[in-house]
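Re: that chain you flagged

S.,

Sorry for the slow reply, it's been a week of failed gels. I finally had a moment to sit down with the sequence you sent. For the record, here it is as I used it:
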Amino acid sequence: MEIDHYINSFPEKTQTLLKQLRNSIQEILPKAEEAISYGIPIFLIDQNHCKLK
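Prediction finished late last night. Pasting the structure tokens below so you have them in one place:
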């Protein structure tokens, strides 16, 4: 599952918030690699991660 698919599985208002959060993370951590772990999106930087729940 990719992050877009994960976000699109939520109601529209939640999608908007998740997209804003994703954009903020990408702005703050531009080198972060996106992935899915245990069914939730994560952003990896030097093997540390931030989860979207």
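What I noticed first: The chain is about 45% helix and 30% strand.

Talk soon,
D.
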